[in-house]
Amino acid sequence: MKKYLGQIIFNVCVAAISVLLFGCTDLLDSAILSIIVIIAMVALLSWGNYFFIRAASLGRKAFQRAYIIDEHTFESLNQPEDYIEVMKDLKDYAPCRQEASRLIEQWEAFQKKSVTLNAISDGAGVYELVNQDIQSVMLSNMMLFMKRTAIIQSASRNGELNMHKDYLRMLTGRNEKILNDYTNLLIEVSQMTDSERKNTEIKSLRLIIESIHDYKKEMESEDI
Predict the structure, then answer these.
(1) Nearest to 204 by CA among 134, 99, 122
(2) Angle, helices 80-90/125-152, rounded to nearest 10 degrees
(3) Which end of the chain is more exposed for a tag (fewer CB within 10 A), N or C?
């Protein structure tokens, strides 16, 4: 009941306003005015209920303010799941909605590839280390994404916003490249014999290690 309290109060208020309009005024004396008011009330009810239903589908309170990045956001980042929860919230923040959705999709793709690599490589140590490094890069990109979103919140001009959105797209592009490298690694590992999988000099493995190294250097030198 408490979950729908706001929606119930809204509908009761609209109904009360309708009763007052028709009971305390002369609207009923005019067919045209009566029709206009009825249409307006129906439109208001439709919009209001859609607003509450959409808020509920997004897991938000109806009058919750747009998501804001603050110091508490970063303090809560302890596990990968914490990063994903913030990114899910940012999916509802218009300036970065598409990019946030893409980062979540990339993380889910990485998780699936990770399970596959573990299965076909028999959990070989070198692949596990690569997996950990890729996870570190993707989480670091999410951190940079959040920091830039915090700056976007204070952007006052479209030019600023476009510049920041370009940066967010760069982060998703970086993830896309490393996921493509990961796919190549999966393909190569799947075609090897058990003894060949232990060879750390295979081409795709060397390339992905180099990519991770380059990405980490970029992130260390980047300003948000």
Answers:
(1) 134
(2) 40
(3) N
Say how far apart CA 184 and CA 128 lie, in whole Å.
Answer: 16
Mean pLDDT of 13-41: 72
3-state SS of 33-55 is: HHHHHHHHHHHHHHHHHHHHHHH
CB 67 within 8 A of CB 89: yes
In angstroms, the Cα distances linking 184 to 14, 118, 137, 169, 204 are 59, 15, 18, 23, 6
Q: Could you tell me where the DSSP H helices lie in 58-199?
A: 71-75, 80-90, 97-120, 125-152, 158-190, 194-197
CA distance 63 to 51: 10
Per-residue pLDDT tens for 142-158? 999 999 998 888 765 66
Dihedral, 76, 78, 81, 87 alpha carbons, nearest 10 = 50
Classify residue 1 by its DSSP letter.
Answer: -
Global confidence as pTM: 0.65
The DSSP secondary-structure symbol of 180 reads H
CA nearest neighbour of 51 among 61, 41, 37: 61
CA–CA dist 124, 117 (Å, integer): 9
Grouping H, G, I as helix, E, B as strand and the rest as coil, residue 92 is coil
Q: Is the pLDDT of residue 97 over 60?
A: yes
